[in-house]
Design goal:
Rossmann fold; alpha/beta; 10 helices
Length: 293
């Protein structure tokens, strides 16, 4: 078993981004600027956004955090998005999910200018991704592709099973893994909560990507010997042995699955760190107008 070490890779990628940003600055170019909108004070969202802002600082990028209370109106939030769209100094925009129930997340995502949608959630970017056109790819799937590429994992002709059909991870991941390029050229099965014989399907996977938000769901009996196992999950579970009273767990039961896997991502220290790197890479592209001129 080999660990797909997101911590090591993210450090490597951040160093590459820092060099690129320093060169942009030396050439008198525009320093990439990422903006995050955060609604409320949910602990997990706070942590995610803080990590993104800190990472920007580490690589020499600019970042701005715009905060709203939970009672922000949908129109106020949409206006904040429009303001960022219209600000030429701001290159990339992310709106941290989830949003309060009275706010329609689809309306918010559709209001973000595709050229600043570094999370890759706008329908224009999703559509362009499906057609193989230049776009911003959803940050987590892009991070997974980068991980597969940097570990030189063979994907052509392999059976890739994606567990979970969310528009953020599962759906785009299934599209990306079947494209005629590397990583890709897989035969892809997209599964979900209504899929029959799910354990049997998972056992047939050469590459298994778990993104359903259920801690420890994928167990050893669901994994083929030598499979590549990518764990997208990250949930808090009670753990009396921890000072905080909880531990972070993924969708894969790591202890039982790791001995069978050829490659496996840890949680934490795996896919999540790659997601942040993808956001920064996309923001650099946005500042340089590489996708939308």
């Amino acid at each position: 078993m080999q660990l797909l070490d997101g911590k090591f890779l993210s450090s490597q990628i951040k160093s590459e981004i820092a060099i690129e940003v320093a060169q942009i600055k030396a050439d008198g170019g525009k320093i990439p600027h990422l903006v995050a909108i955060l609604v409320g004070n949910a602990g997990r969202s706070e942590t995610y956004v803080a990590s993104k802002m800190k990472s920007c600082e580490e690589v020499g990028m600019h970042s701005t955090l715009i905060r709203f209370d939970d009672d922000v109106t949908e129109e106020q939030l949409l206006q904040a998005v429009r303001d960022v769209n219209n600000n030429p100094d701001m290159d990339g925009l992310i709106v941290q999910l989830p949003l309060p129930k009275h706010v329609n997340p689809d309306r918010v995502m559709e209001t973000i200018a595709p050229a600043k949608d570094v999370d890759g959630f706008h329908p224009t970017n999703i559509g362009r991704m499906a057609k193989g056109l230049p776009c911003y790819i959803s940050a987590t799937p892009q991070g997974i592709l980068e991980m597969l590429k940097r570990y030189e994992i063979e994907t052509s002709g392999k059976h890739c099973v994606v567990v979970g059909r969310s528009q953020i991870v599962g759906l785009p991941m299934s599209i990306l893994m079947q494209r005629n390029e590397y990583p890709g050229n897989c035969t892809v099965t997209l599964t979900h909560s209504k899929t029959q014989n799910l354990p049997d399907i998972c056992r047939s996977a050469d590459i298994l990507i778990a993104a359903l938000g259920r801690p420890g769901f994928v167990t050893a009996d669901m994994v083929k010997e030598g499979a590549v196992v990518i764990d997208v999950g990250l949930e808090k579970v009670p753990d009396a042995t921890k000072k905080s009273g909880f531990a972070l767990r993924g969708d894969v039961d790591f202890e039982s699955v790791a001995p069978k896997a050829g490659y496996i991502t840890p949680v934490p220290g795996g896919v999540g760190l790659m997601t942040i790197c993808s956001l920064m890479q996309n923001t650099v592209k946005a500042a340089k107008r590489e996708v939308y001129s």
